[in-house]
Amino acid sequence: MFGERPITEVPDVVGLSATDAGEIVRKAGLIPKGPGDTAAPTNGVITDQRPIGTAGAERGTVVYLWAGPGRSADSAPSPLIEVGDLDPV
What we know:
Elements: E1 7-9, H1 18-27, E2 31-33, E3 45-50, E4 56-58, E5 62-68
Parallel strand pairs: 2-5
Antiparallel strand pairs: 1-4, 3-5
């Protein structure tokens, strides 16, 4: 089995910020890229990826990431509004 690369699990990065997703994919020994072999996205939130998260892939495999606008799942939620703060209609 000379020349085979070790298999690793593809991390599921959908819902994460593009910068965090790229870093996580690299740490797994994989190569993040955008659709059509463009540079990996650096803004927005990852909306889709191929191969999918938890799939097995050889180290050095490209993981394609699609990003859209928005906040990542790990962003802080917006503060709650107290009922007393609302203007009566």
